[in-house]
Amino acid sequence: MRFGPGTIGSGTFVGRTSPDVGLGRTDGGGITMGQALAAIGYAGEAPVGGYPIEAFFEAHIEQGPILERDGVPIGVVLGAQGQRCFRIVVDGEEGHAGTLPMELRRDALLGAARMIDALNGVAFRHAPHPVITVGQIQVRPNSRNTIPGQAAFTVDSRHPDDGTLAAVDRDMRAACEEVARRSNVTVSIEHVSSRRSVSFDPECAAAVARAADKLDLPWQEIYSGAGHDACNLALAAPAGMIFVPCAGGVSHNERESARPEDLAAGCDVLLHVMAERAGVA
Amino acid sequence: MRFGPGTIGSGTFVGRTSPDVGLGRTDGGGITMGQALAAIGYAGEAPVGGYPIEAFFEAHIEQGPILERDGVPIGVVLGAQGQRCFRIVVDGEEGHAGTLPMELRRDALLGAARMIDALNGVAFRHAPHPVITVGQIQVRPNSRNTIPGQAAFTVDSRHPDDGTLAAVDRDMRAACEEVARRSNVTVSIEHVSSRRSVSFDPECAAAVARAADKLDLPWQEIYSGAGHDACNLALAAPAGMIFVPCAGGVSHNERESARPEDLAAGCDVLLHVMAERAGVA
Lengths: 281, 281
Fold this sequence. Notes:
The structure is a homodimer. The first copy, chain A, is α+β, with helices and mostly antiparallel strands.
């Protein structure tokens, strides 16, 4: 996208972000969003937000593989996952790969590897499963014949329920500390960022399900793993979302693809749910 | 060192490397070893090697922590470890950290982490222990919110006995393949390099032990984890080595340190073993 982060318009509308922040975002060429809006004649004088919304509905591809796997065209979105991110640093001691016996080693990468496996196990001990991802890792000195003295990796954990996410957080810390003890290394866990979960209005979700039923479209309940404008609007009005399947769960990528009939079904549900809410159905 | 790799002089002497290879090695400034020898008047006409050696003895710091840990000043070196190095590539599938459920993932880093733990286990299943080290790892795309689609890491395995090292090789492959199967990823194992083990002449080792006994110096048998000139000379003559302790096993580093009394003990043993071999003791 030209001006990051995403959903900045809806975030500004509901007062999560001040207008100055959004207008001051720059693109890759150093142009601010305010300058770009003025250049196309869209920099108006009216205040942002502040007027009432009866309800907000948004249709979107799932950006995940669940509806495609289950062969269901409509997802009734109940909410969006909360997220907690961490940076974990494991400290051991560098040593020569040829001369340091196994039983004297303090191998930071071995400790990190066991933690990565243990964190995966934590995800499966909570039902329904949270998602826990280690996406980045870096070791020092990163030399073929030196036992790593330090390994640092990221953790991204998400779950629709903030209470479960807090329990997952506790279990992850305990798992890493247990691994550190038995692996003769030390671990430090830095909290990087958090995002609270969003629960959509139950009546909005029920209305999406009713519209799908009316159109004879199979549906199932689902949570969003990504952020959306509706997650911001839910702070200011009753909000709901409709998901449709996409190929392989891929999005924001040249491979992103959805079938025309699924997109049409999503639009049809959106039309019916809006008409019902507006009292014109 | 200015001209790598190490022990190139002894390797040339015993015919392991041709003189042209050594003379053609360049330093960081592009100067060849041949040019550097000519500049200081050391580029002679005599052939390298080809004359008989009665025996070769070398004294060296251990470059490992064993003698220091055990409080023993003299190591009677029985040989040098063989080495096999590998590059292991684990392929899974990239996915979104928020939207792809745990049970549908093909996480390359999770597979690699389990392999790293399993390889450590392989080392402890062989006695006396080989050393197995994973020193480098790299994941793709290395993004906090993307499940890694690929992870590549190095393996350095060493043992004094080439047969054990071959068995370790087989066990490591089996362990990685078993992890790949249960982790829903694929693995490819590329052999990068090998170095055969060296066994020093038993009579030379016995002579080192006798000299230590004569000097009332405690000694123990040990294997070298690193390469030395004596490993090359063992191809051309009876050879032996004497190790002395060094602080923390650290070498080729500003922290390298050995106690004067240990260095003196090593030199004393070297003197006595040479004198005995020369028939002048």
